[in-house]
Amino acid sequence: MSYPHWIQFRGQTLGLVWQTDDEAGDEGDTDGVLVSKGQIVSARTQEDFLELARQHNIVLEAGNPEPQNLDGIEELLQLPASDDTCAQLLNAWNLLGDIARSVNASLDDRGPEADKCYDKLFYGNNLPSITPPR
């Protein structure tokens, strides 16, 4: 499945085609962004997304129209822990990992210390699948 995903990065709004295969099972994380000829494909307008879908023969599902703000994400580390801060950091970590995986790069974001931090963020989000309503 493919989704338009807007990001705010270095003061600019840019659209990426985020892709997932929720049916992948035990194959590991298969999420990524659309890449063509080794380059990340991007859009500047909604019309660009429609053209990308046509060019790459994909169907775009409905996406979130609000851009994910990646500007100043490191500054969040200085703030007191909150649900919003945990969610922003985890979402950024996941997206940056998906982008890196798409171009066969590594963020060096795995290992005992990094996994401990990731797990703390993940469980700090209190997702319904982990912490069901009472």
Defining key terms:
single chain, two-stranded antiparallel sheet, globular, alpha+beta, 134 residues, 32% helix, five-stranded mixed β-sheet
Give a nutshell description of this structure.
With 134 residues, the chain is of the alpha+beta class. It has three helices and seven strands; from the N terminus they run E-E-E-E-E-E-H-E-H-H.
Write the layout of secondary structure elements.
Elements: E1 2-9, E2 12-19, E3 32-33, E4 35-36, E5 39-40, E6 42-43, H1 46-55, E7 68-69, H2 83-102, H3 112-124
Parallel strand pairs: 1-7
Antiparallel strand pairs: 1-2, 2-3, 2-6, 4-5
What can you tell me about this protein's structure?
Helices cover 32% and strands 19% of the residues. The chain has 134 residues and is an alpha+beta fold. The chain has one domain (2-124). The strands form 2 sheets. Strands 1, 2, 3, 6 and 7 form a 5-stranded mixed β-sheet that branches. α2 (83-102) packs across α3. The mean pLDDT is 84.
- Whole-number average pLDDT? 84
Run of helices and strands: EEEEEEHEHH
Q: Which regions are unreliable across 5 or more consecutive residues at pLDDT < 50? A: none
| Shape by Cα distribution | globular
What characterizes the major β-sheet?
Answer: 5 strands, mixed
